[in-house]
């Protein structure tokens, strides 16, 4: 690591759980962020700021006026532009050292699998169930850790599914237990700082997965009601009858 890197990352290198070796691991890592909206914006910004070596952004949307209330990686000059390209520009000016690659597509099938296989961590920041279930399947099949979050209105939930661990549940286990939320923020609305908080926590879990610091949310689901500011952490066991990870 060169002096400039030691300085740029000094405040996190000071943390004994990160240190030089943890920073080097971040610099050597690849993070795949699927969905660059309200959740994906802070995830991408924080992972780029902290020096994750390569960030792959996947999203098929363009920047719209109604996005700017919460998708803080974009600005008013970028209306109508391809989201992943504008997001890549933002990351490039924040930290030119990070390699950013973009997929301006809703990835699925082979392309999804290939990109998940390459990644050290996957961030699910999508807004639809079909994508979530497929991302979960591919992460399980390739034993790639998955950081998943969702937010609607003033509420959010967050968990980590780490199929490298024998007893880790998967997203399908959670879905089987809670049932489909089946709601979208286009119909129900969502508060910007709420998705922001959830996205920041996804970035923090990703850093822990990449560096080995602390313990992650694997086996727990964190649920936030930001209107009353109540946090709840519920245990999530692996479902032996799960169609993805069950025996
Ligand atoms: Zn499962």
Summarize the structure in words.
The chain contains 10 helices and 8 strands. Strands 3-2-1-4-5-6-7-8 form an 8-stranded mixed β-sheet, sandwiched between helices. The mean pLDDT is 95. It is globular and about 50 Å long. α4 (40-49) packs across α10. Helices cover 39% and strands 18% of the residues. It has 247 residues and is an alpha/beta fold. It has a single domain, classed as Rossmann fold (3-Layer(aba) Sandwich), CATH 3.40.50. Bound molecules: zinc ion. Residues 169-170, 172-173, 239, 242, 244-245 line the site of zinc ion. Zinc ion is lined by residues 169-170, 172-173, 239, 242, 244-245.
Radius of gyration, taken over Cα atoms and rounded to an integer in Å: 17 Å
**Secondary structure: helix percent:** 25-40%
Q: Which cofactors or ions or other ligands sit in this model?
A: zinc ion
**Main β-sheet description:** 8 strands, mixed
Mean pLDDT: 95
Q: Classify the secondary structure makeup into a structural class.
A: alpha/beta
- Strands side by side in the biggest sheet: 3-2-1-4-5-6-7-8
Q: Which residues form runs of ≥5 with pLDDT under 50?
A: none
Number of domains: 1
How are the elements arranged and paired?
Layout: H1 3-8, H2 10-13, H3 19-27, E1 30-34, H4 40-49, E2 54-58, H5 83-94, E3 99-103, H6 109-118, E4 121-124, H7 129-142, E5 146-152, E6 155-161, H8 171-178, H9 185-188, H10 192-211, E7 220-225, E8 230-235
Parallel strand pairs: 1-2, 1-4, 2-3, 4-5
Antiparallel strand pairs: 5-6, 6-7, 7-8
Helix pairs in contact: 4-5, 4-10, 6-7
């Amino acid at each position: 690591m060169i002096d400039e890197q030691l300085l740029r990352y000094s405040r996190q290198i000071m943390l004994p759980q990160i240190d030089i070796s943890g920073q080097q691991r971040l610099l050597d890592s690849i993070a795949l962020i699927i969905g660059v909206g309200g959740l994906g914006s802070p995830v991408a910004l924080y992972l780029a700021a902290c020096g994750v070596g390569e960030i792959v952004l996947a999203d098929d949307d363009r920047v719209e006026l109604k996005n700017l209330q919460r998708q803080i990686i974009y600005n008013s000059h970028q209306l109508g532009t391809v989201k992943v390209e504008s997001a890549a520009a933002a990351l490039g000016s924040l930290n030119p050292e990070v390699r950013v690659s973009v997929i301006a597509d809703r990835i699925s099938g082979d392309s999804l699998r290939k990109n998940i296989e390459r990644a050290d961590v996957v961030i699910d920041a999508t807004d639809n169930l079909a994508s979530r279930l497929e991302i979960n399947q591919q992460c399980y099949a390739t034993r790639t850790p998955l950081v998943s979050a969702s937010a609607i209105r003033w509420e959010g939930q967050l968990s980590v599914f780490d199929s490298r661990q024998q007893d880790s549940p998967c997203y399908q286990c959670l879905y089987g237990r809670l049932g489909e939320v089946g709601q979208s923020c286009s119909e129900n609305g969502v508060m910007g700082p709420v998705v922001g908080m959830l996205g920041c926590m996804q970035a923090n879990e990703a850093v822990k997965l990449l560096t080995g610091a602390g313990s992650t949310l694997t086996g727990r689901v964190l649920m936030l009601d930001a209107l009353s500011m109540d946090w709840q952490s519920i245990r999530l066991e692996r479902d032996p009858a799960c169609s993805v990870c069950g025996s």
